[in-house]
Amino acid sequence: PSKPPAPPPPSGVRTIQAYITGYSYFDNTPPGSVEISNPVLHQAAGGTGTYADPITVAAGHSIVSGRDRLDWPAGARFYIPNLRRYFIVEDTCGDGSSPQNGPCHVGYPAPATTWLDLWVGGRGGLAGGADSCMNSITAVWDVLVNPGFGYATVPGAIYGPAGCTKQYG
Question: How many angstroms separate the CA atoms of 122 and 107, rounded?
Fold first, then answer.
């Protein structure tokens, strides 16, 4: 049997190159928590990676004229073919009074045009396992912005009791 064709891209979808990193239960702010700064669908970091339940992603942000401005708006959606999961901006990456001078806002490698920090999970697992998993997904990957329903998904945490998720290149 032949594989069904991929769904046509919805209006407004585009592909970008993004520097992908991960954060976990162990290195969240505060450590050992699932707190997020900009809840949209979830009240805590999570998600299964399906279209209906995308995984939390942290975006870089800037303090401009005393106001916090996300690099991607809360609720922005992405699909990462390498992980076969959907993601949604619900958290910020970078701390302090000048987050625009640090990780997730500057310092990512070319040809990436942005930096996305994915929630990998980890609660109930080992910090070393989460770190190893985060290292394995860290790279510049194609990312679909504003994806529609219908892309192949492999639901579940990026890191969990079974280890790190499979990658699809």
Answer: 26
